[in-house]
Amino acid sequence: MSKLILFNKPFGVLCQFTGEAGKQTLAEFIPVPGVYAAGRLDADSEGLLVLTDDGLLQKRIADPQHKLPKTYVVQVEGCADEVALARLRAGGLDLGDFVTKPCEARLIDEPAWLWPRHPPIRERKSIPTSWVEIVLREGKNRQVRRMTAKVGFPTLRLIRARIGEWTLEGLSPGNWQETSAPTSKPLSRGGRNSC
Question: Given CB 3.0 to 4.6 Å as the disulfide criterion, which of 99, 159, 162, 171 pairs with 47?
Answer without folding.
Answer: 159
